[in-house]
Amino acid sequence: MTVFLLRRLAGLAVVLLVASFLVYGLLYLVPGGPMAFLLGNRSGTPEQIAAIRAQYHLDDPFLVRYATWLGDAVRGDFGSSLVYRQDVSALMSARAATTTFLVGYSTVLIVVVGVAAGTLAGLRRGRVDNVVSAVSSAFLATPTFVIGVVLVIVFALGLGWFPVFGPGEGFGGRLYHLTLPAITLSLGSAAFLARITRASVREELGREHVETARSRGLAESLVIRRHVLRNASIPVITVTGLTVASLIAGSVVVENVFALDGLGSLFVRAILQRDFAVVQAVVLVLVTAFVLVNLVVDLCYKALDPRMSR
């Protein structure tokens, strides 16, 4: 297990290194380079341009600048925001809790609803299967922002069950305020996971080892739990991992619909305001989160089937 984990960590470190190089380097490929971001709409005098180049070490070789930036990023220092005139790390930490809670809440809903509905549809043919398939198809075909607007109109403005804006305070307050955003973010992914779970369960039910277990007189509940659900969980974990990673990007839309001040909304504003330090930091954090999610998926594979580590 230790060798497997070290091998995965080494591979992920390489991925993060390449991703950080791309994140830092791509902004230097835009017309005008970093000076276009630093000057904004101003032309700048030669003295101002020289001062800016000296402040941001733009006259140093590119690899030297990248190494300095990467070293600071590893220590949690992403520089200062050009727009907010604040430390980028402080800006992100103030908003990371909202995005983390939203993604975590949505993940729980996706796993519980998606796996339960898909398993039920896979085990019970007929009306249950038809209902789950129809509902999942409807949610998959509906854009996230449409679901969010409908939920706000019905459950916030119409019935008054949930607040419209804000992330809330404390665990209970966040749970209450982020219920509608989490449902909005999770419905489409839960529907997709339900379809994958249904197909995987159906496939396992038709395998020979399941028929053999039944012929040996094992209880149906034991056959389902040990021989069907365990093997069916491997593709489900794959889809769950990719889905959770995509939630981080999908939260941008939901945060804007519900006026949540999270990393997604900060990222959108940074792009519009050409705040390149914030853009670099948020992208690097999102890539890191995606890589860590994939590491968790690999560890789940190892726990379910040790042969996958060979």
TrEMBL record:
Entry's localization field: Cell membrane
Residue stretches making up the ABC transmembrane type-1 domain: 96-297
Transmembrane segments: 9-30, 102-123, 135-162, 174-194, 234-258, 278-301
Main location: membrane
InterPro entries, sorted: BPD_transp_1_N, MetI-like, MetI-like_sf
GO cellular component, one term: plasma membrane
CDD domains in UniProt: TM_PBP2
Membrane-topology descriptor: Multi-pass membrane protein
One of the GO BP terms on file: transmembrane transport
Keywords, comma-separated and alphabetical: Cell membrane, Membrane, Transmembrane, Transmembrane helix, Transport
Pfam families cross-referenced by the UniProt entry: BPD_transp_1, BPD_transp_1_N
Family to which the UniProt record says this protein belongs: Belongs to the binding-protein-dependent transport system permease family.
Protein's recorded name: ABC transporter permease
Provenance organism: Streptomyces antnestii
